[in-house]
Amino acid sequence: MDRKGRLPSDHSGVYASSMLCGHLPPQPLTSVLNACIDIACQLLSSGQNLVRRPCRMRHQMNTTAGRHVLSARIGQPARAFLARRFSRAHTRRVLVYYNVSRISWSQIFPFVFYGAELAHQYDAEFRFVPVDALLKGDRVRERAADIILVQPWFTTHTDVLDVALDRLATAHPKAQISFLDSYAHNDLRLGCTVDPYITHYLKKSLFRDSHLYFKEFKGDTNLLDYYGRLYGLEYAPVNWNVPDTILPKLRLSPNFLTAPHFIDDLSKKAMPRREGRSLDVSVRLGGQDAHGAYAAMRRHANGLMTKIEGITRSPPNIVPFKAYMAEMRAARLCFSPFGFGELCWRDIEAMISGTVMIKPDMSHLETLPNLYEPGVTYLPVRWDFADLEEVIRGALADEDRCRDIAKTAYDRMAHYIREACFVSDMSSLFS
Prior knowledge:
By secondary structure, the chain is α/β, with parallel strands linked by helices. The protein is built from 16 helices and 16 strands. The protein folds into 3 domains: 1-65, no CATH class; 66-258 and 421-430, Response regulator (Rossmann fold, 3-Layer(aba) Sandwich); 272-418, Glycogen Phosphorylase B (Rossmann fold, 3-Layer(aba) Sandwich).
């Protein structure tokens, strides 16, 4: 950066942050951010609203960068901008080490999107750094961070993670470290490794019955255990050796509805109308050609759907995402079986489209917000799909009920986003 904090605009420029270095090619986002910085500097020099307007401008710049973090074309300058050095504007400094992936970023983006509200509520400033630098053993420089959030992927070797957390805790002895779990499965497979270092463990869903964290499931998840038994597939028992000391540290974070494209729609759009929908059930189930219980479950679910007579359903061809979402908005119902975990992108894609979701019973989990209230926000079916046809036919015969369910689900998501409920939900991080 230059003295005004602008990003370099040519190939020779190198951005040096405390944890991230790299060449920044000329990209449109760089020009946008530099223009924002110039405007903020002009406001400061003119003496107009010296407190408010520059803060608003910084927030807009952060949000713009946050929407482009995963872009193959302009992701690098966006990530570099979010990793810039802390300012002296706030008393709390929050350093976030995140995994660069679509799934993981949906858990991180609300910290960017609600940055202004978090700054106001907790006097906190955030910086975001890809976690790979930490895991690869790059030097951990002092950033005087008060709070550190760490989000590796679940395949990270426990020895690597242990060493990284130890180095991080040593470099920041006064900081509060918390762990972000964006994984599909509900177990705490990294809990034994991270527990000695962390204050909180944030996860997108939690077992209502905490005893399930200590149960040996056949296979590495509760879903593999159930569907393996259902389809006669043998899996060895897995014990994750979860320490009971981690239970008081567990906290919920939102699921996929805080991904950038969902937040943008829920912030300002009304639920799509249900009148005139031409498709009875949206059902597109990938993974049927894979192996194991997951594939067997998907084949079983798809086979049952094809046997239901007298209804219209999605054609079997693969379509681009835009066409898929157009189809979802034309559907009255959406069948969303489990994936590798219970929570799926499809759940939010259905609800945001005003489409009633049919899904295996979710009563064993807590989520934030609660989008899985049976008969209120979705229609549950048995895990073995024995009542799938009955539930579908009952829903298609009662449009008034479906309209109420779709509206409740959409309104619950929209309320969470528009009222910035995330800000208060994260209060434990700042206590």
